[in-house]
Amino acid sequence: MAAMAVALRGLGGRFRWRTQAVAGGVRGAARGAAAAQLGRKVAVVDYVEPSPQGTRWGLGGTCVNVGCIPKKLMHQAALLGGLIQDAPHYGWEVAQPVPHDWRKMAEAVQNHVKSLNWGHRVQLQDRKVKYFNIKASFVDEHTVCGVAKGGKEILLSADHIIIATGGRPRYPTHIEGALEYGITSDDIFWLKESPGKTLVVGASYVALECAGFLTGIGLDTTVMIRSIPLRGFDQQMSSMVIEHMASHGTQFLRGCAPSRVRRLPDGHLQVTWEDCTTGKEDTGTFDTVLWAIGRVPDTRSLNLEKAGVDTSPDTQKILVDSREGTSVPHIYAIGDVVEGRPELTPTAIMAGRLLVQRLFGGSSDLMDYDNVPTTVFTPLEYGCVGLSEEEAVARHGQEHVEVYHAHYKPLEFTVAGRDASQCYVKMVCLREPPQLVLGLHFLGPNAGEVTQGFALGIKCGASYAQVMRTVGIHPTCSEEVVKLRISKRSGLDPTVTGC
Amino acid sequence: VEQSPPQSPGPGKAGDAPNRRSGHVRGARVLSPPGRRARLSSPGPSSSSEAREELRRRLRGLIERSRVMIFSKSYCPHSTRVKELFSSLGVECNVLELDQVDDGAKVQEVLSEITNQKTVPNVFVNKVHVGGCDQTFQAYQSGLLQKLLQEDSAYDYDLIIVGGGSGGLSCAKEAAILGKKVMVLDFVVPSPQGTSWGLGGTCVNVGCIPKKLMHQAALLGQALCDSRKFGWEYNQQVKHNWETMTKAIQNHISSLNWGYRLSLREKAVAYVNSYGEFVEHHKIKATNKKGQETYYTAAQFVIATGERPRYLGIQGDKEYCITSDDLFSLPYCPGKTLVVGASYVALECAGFLAGFGLDVTVMVRSILLRGFDQEMAEKVGSYMEQHGVKFLRKFIPVMIQQLEKGSPGKLKVLAKSTEGTETIEGVYNTVLLAIGRDSCTRKMGLEKIGVKINEKSGKIPVNDVEQTSVPYVYAVGDVSEGKPELTPVAIQSGKLLARRLFGASLEKCDYINVPTTVFTPLEYGCCGLAEEKAIEVYKKENLEIYHTLFWPLEWTVAGRENNTCYAKIICNKLDHDRVIGFHILGPNAGEVTQGFAAAMKCGLTKQLLDDTIGIHPTCGEVFTTLEITKSSGLDITQKGCG
């Protein structure tokens, strides 16, 4: 999708804009709204190209429609499934097992997303941002063009243009049947019927999150991973995430790559894959195949070459400087479409807001892409901020890094009789006093909530000693962070016992 | 004895050399806003701190090796008196004249850190800090000094801790790790209803742990309702079974009791299930359940006996009412319950009882959650009210009568208005008193050894190194006066105390910006100052308060109310908009608050909040996008979504 901020006088379907932008989604909306608040005439141009399976959605971009929001809600549905199983231990007389109705959940989630779409439109209207639901591409460096539903061609010109078209899931088009029979995260949240027995291909956080909630609502789910899970994340944590999922019913096919997908006469999908080490082929039958092997930026249809905007030849992402400026001075790019940025909603929102403040608000604040906290909403959530252990060691050397860690048991797990083998926290610090905190990694319930505040601490330049001086909140999981006493180097048992 | 020279600040105990550095740090702790202290204390040049460590080790060495060690000044008349006293007893002393050594001033600083005594003479006998001139003479008159001199570490233990709760156990374990011979005396006097429990103190047995678990049980009831909206299907009316829950929780607590005993045993700490009562200096009588008495002596003592729920002192209260001491192990469902009080204990208990579907009324004398931010407190209360808890404001019970015996029985409560003459009557199955807690200090012989208590509250006043009026007796946890009554605080102060007493540490417990969370149905987490307190300290015009209502994503689909969860920060405009108060009302408030508390320790400012990227979609992220100030009066209600 694309959102643009432009303003001035319209002449028979042709507009001139003082500010020019092509962008979409959350970042587009944020930027547009912010620019409009600063007294500019702004237009947002947004269009959702239907997925190969025909799924389409409204204003708001990936996060709202096919990302964070529906993902977290389905994750919540799965968590509730776990809580229903806990409930009898706590005295609630619920007959088990409790069945789950996909249609009911999906409808509720989709209704919420639609209300958000509407909210975004109202917000743009309130702030007098013109919204065009058209697919736009560049005509020249100040003009974009698109065709409206009635076939009318619209030309928009602007002083500044911001590109925020985001990315879309990648299809492994070289695999026979991938495009015809596979779905992606663009489709899963909008399925009317349960996906049934599902094969998730990929090891990205999208893959693991989807597999996690599918398992959680009772579906037979398999994840096929070619190499390592959660590339770019701390690998010890990543493997514990997988371990937890495996012990809670998700099946894993490690070191395997799919080679073809065929539809059987009974409608099931037969997937053939190859074991990358032995070279042996194997097959399995599924109701749904979900590709979650990465995302590609939505830049190809923008005719960027007509405006002279440079992209990376490898990734097709747009190249920008620290001010989010592209190779064309008045064209900017923010969000997932940009090369080398964390692909996260709040990052995109903040980058958009800061950009507009620089453009029109007289500000010079640059976006700080360091220490961006994030959370992977797998069944056991993984929250992190700062450096992974590997990265810390690579940057500072093993001998200069001290890692404090603990295995803990959330209080709520005890009465429920849950296994807490993977509830784990580690803090990566410099070894030299005052032991600056480089990274925090937390695996456990409510990891997102736990991580947020500590991200602030790390931004403030927290030292290990300062974190240890913080009094815990009892009984919570987050207090384990301020009680970390055992270093990995000591070799002592990091299992928390007692209270 | 000569008058002291004019350049000396005087002979009085007020101190012959005011300790500048120490005075400054103390001042900063009181006067500077939260977070500041961490900066002040951030490490200076490491060489000077190493030198300081070295000096401290040297002093400890002197103290450990000397039968009597006197830090003195050659011109000080009080020092002279003390030296003369020991000389008259025929005891040889080690004396360091601080005015005759190069680093005398530094020695005095370090001494003041070790003993919290700034003046000389500073006297140690057999490693025990006796104090200054007056204390030494008092000890001489009471016979303590002679005892100290005789009993050359002839005590049974290095440390006896009275009270096996969070503070006592953490202190015991740490002291044992440092190689000391330690005993813990723990004895639970049964409640008037006869409830008693095992090792671990309030938190584990009748506090945080069972409370949070019952809160979780109530949250699960809510989760069950939510889950239908998320596609989970079950039609039957789900009932809650009190006995099943309580049994599961008590099983968990038993395992914790056992765990504590085990860990004391592993660390070779002697655990005695007896009631401790001081009989003379350094000597305590331990009385067990059967009434058998045993006597133990120790060089030092820590009092960590905590508190117990208060009773009203009206007709029928002890006979028929229960308290939090009884509730968590109640063998039957309490039924229709009246909760008396508005403390966090009262509101938490009322919250989870209502969560199980019970008919719950809270009788409040004046305000909710005294000491907490009142805007937040009222929001906590109104959420409870909207979820079925009834509030009777401005009433106090005057009489409790039993109508029927049973499990539960039936009680008639007569209450009168605090404002007029109006009286009301109500019938309940259970009356739970949660009107406050009293410390357990009056029946442990403290007067025999001269440990002062606050006569009104019964609490023990301590200095900033947890020392009582008797130098070898310390107090940690809820029993100590003016300290936050929280488990993690007790644990931290107990542990740090042991490290100061027996280890190479000087670190004092930092009681500033202690975060906490009230586990009411909608949780309330906070750190730093309440709005009222901030206004009182900094003046309204110097504060900027940012706030917003928010709607947790999980609540949207569940169809739970919008514009209920609330976030607020209080910033000091005179200090770079430093965050001096943090308040959140919403799900998982405890988990959210902890990290922000750590950030406040590091000097969190509004700018840093703005510069930090949120984690999406969470509740905690709301603090990274706070835009509306309270002073602007702008609307903070959320219309629609996102």
Provide tags for this entry.
heterodimer, A: 499 residues, alpha/beta, FAD/NAD(P)-binding domain, 3 domains, 5-stranded mixed beta sheet, 5-stranded parallel beta sheet, 30% helix, disordered N terminus, B: 642 residues, Glutaredoxin, 7-stranded mixed beta sheet, 21 helices, 21% strand, oxidoreductase (chain A)
What's the structural blueprint in terms of helices and strands?
The complex is a heterodimer of chains A (499) and B (642).
Chain A (H helix, E strand, L loop, with lengths): L9 E2 L2 E3 L8 H13 L4 E4 L15 H6 L1 H19 L15 H25 L2 E4 L2 E6 L2 E5 L5 E5 L3 E3 L3 E3 L8 H4 E3 H4 L9 E4 L3 H12 L4 E5 L9 H13 L3 E4 L1 E8 L5 E7 L5 E6 L1 E4 L3 E3 L6 H4 L23 E3 L11 H16 L13 E3 L5 E5 L2 H8 L4 E7 L3 H6 L7 E7 L6 E7 L3 H13 L4 H6 L30
Parallel strand pairs in A: 2-7, 3-4, 8-19, 10-17, 11-12, 11-17, 12-13
Antiparallel strand pairs in A: 1-2, 5-6, 6-7, 9-18, 14-15, 15-16, 20-21, 21-24, 22-23, 23-24
Chain B lengths: L19 H12 L4 H5 L5 H20 L2 E5 L4 H12 L5 E4 L6 H12 L6 E4 L2 E4 L1 H10 L1 H7 L6 E6 L3 H12 L4 E4 L15 H6 L1 H22 L12 H25 L3 E3 L2 E6 L2 E5 L5 E11 L3 E3 L7 H4 L1 E2 H4 L9 E4 L3 H12 L4 E5 L9 H13 L3 E4 L1 E10 L5 E8 L5 E6 L1 E4 L3 E3 L6 H4 L23 E3 L11 H16 L13 E3 L5 E5 L2 H8 L4 E8 L2 H6 L6 E8 L5 E8 L3 H13 L4 H6 L31
Parallel strand pairs in B: 1-2, 5-6, 5-10, 6-7, 10-21, 12-19, 13-14, 13-19, 14-15
Antiparallel strand pairs in B: 1-3, 3-4, 8-9, 9-10, 11-20, 16-17, 17-18, 22-23, 23-26, 24-25, 25-26
